[in-house]
Design a protein that fits this description.
The structure is a single chain. By secondary structure, the chain is α/β, with parallel strands linked by helices. The protein has twelve helices and twelve strands. The mean pLDDT is 94. Bound molecules: S-adenosylmethionine.
């Protein structure tokens, strides 16, 4: 039969598409991928009552190491694997798809809105975005910063960067892990202020001017829900926000920002004049750098 990968959209149970709903309702087993994102306005029980089906929560361990359990008897019955957003938004569940293919089980994806495209609602054009990066919670002795070079590459091209923020669900403390105790910490969702502080911390360490405290940014909170909120400001201002309930993402602007994008964003700026100046400064600095590069090339000739 079929393994359906079904996108749930961003917020409420009703965001599922009609085609997605029809597919879920004919499936024998329904799994909800429950570690890369959350459906902000729905519980598992809400989904169960809409689908009239039991929903099985699939944690990272089950998806990454237990794909055979998910695919059990899929030759004879349909199985649904639900993903918040779009099944291919940010994290692709490649292992599961490859395993289904190996077993000769057809896979069908039913798409939905993702943070990767709905982010356009803040006024920035999707065509002006570069590589998306992820930011994880820093620990005292572990501060992975591979995002830094990618943001720098985007910013050198003048492109915006969508920064996706860490979610920690079903994590064990070191002590519980070491003692083999299956006790899990409460879920944690990175907010905008932590993200901005971590970004600034890495800039201070790397000193590559990938971005600066005055770099213009937009916070993206609870996108697609009735509590959706955007705030435009500098990265330093983002570090002082109180961004509230999850989920959150952050966009770092590139210097190729179009006038219309700025006009749209001003609506979300607390300090409109300050934000406009921050963007203008970036655009002018990029122009000056370009002219300097041309002049240097002409000198070499
Ligand atoms: C690994 S991605 C998964 C994306 C999801 N599959 C999709 O297509 O939208 C999860 C991260 O995306 C961002 N995100 C997802 N939904 C969001 C929303 N509604 N509002 C703001 N950020 C969101 C958060 O940073 C979150 O930690």
């Amino acid at each position: 039969m079929v393994l359906y990968l079904i996108g749930l959209g961003l917020s409420s149970p009703e965001d599922i598409t009609v085609r997605g709903l029809k597919a879920v309702q004919k499936c024998e087993r329904v799994y909800l991928e429950a570690y890369t994102s959350i459906l902000m306005a729905a519980t598992k029980e809400d989904l169960e009552s809409l689908y009239d089906r039991e929903v099985i929560l699939a944690d990272r361990e089950l998806v990454e190491s237990g794909s055979d359990q998910i695919l059990e008897n899929a030759e004879n019955v349909d199985i649904a694997f639900l993903v918040v957003g779009d099944p291919f938004g940010a994290t692709t569940h490649t292992d599961l798809i490859i395993r289904a293919r190996e077993l000769g089980i057809p896979v069908e994806a039913i798409h939905n809105a993702s943070v990767m495209n709905a982010v356009g609602a803040c006024g920035l054009q999707l065509y002006n975005f570069g590589q998306t990066v992820s930011l994880v919670f820093f620990m005292d002795n572990w501060k992975p910063d591979s995002f830094y070079d990618r943001i720098k590459e985007n910013r050198e091209l003048g492109l915006h960067t969508l920064v996706l923020l860490d979610i920690k669900v079903k994590e064990q403390s070191f002590e519980n892990m070491a003692r083999g105790r299956k006790i899990y910490e409460p879920p944690r969702y990175m907010n905008i202020e932590t993200a901005a502080s971590q970004l600034l911390e890495i800039e201070t360490l790397r000193k590559g001017s990938a971005y600066l405290p005055e770099t213009p940014c937009v916070s993206i909170s609870r996108l697609g829900s009735p509590q959706q909120k955007f705030i435009a400001g500098t990265l330093a201002e983002m570090a002082e926000l109180e961004s509230g309930d999850p989920l959150h993402s952050l966009v770092i602007l590139g210097h190729r920002t179009h006038e219309m994008e700025v006009e749209y964003l001003l609506e979300f700026a607390k300090d409109k004049e300050g934000f406009k100046n921050a963007v203008t400064k970036e655009v002018e600095a990029a122009k000056a750098a370009q002219m300097a590069a041309v002049a240097e090339e002409e000198d070499d000739d």
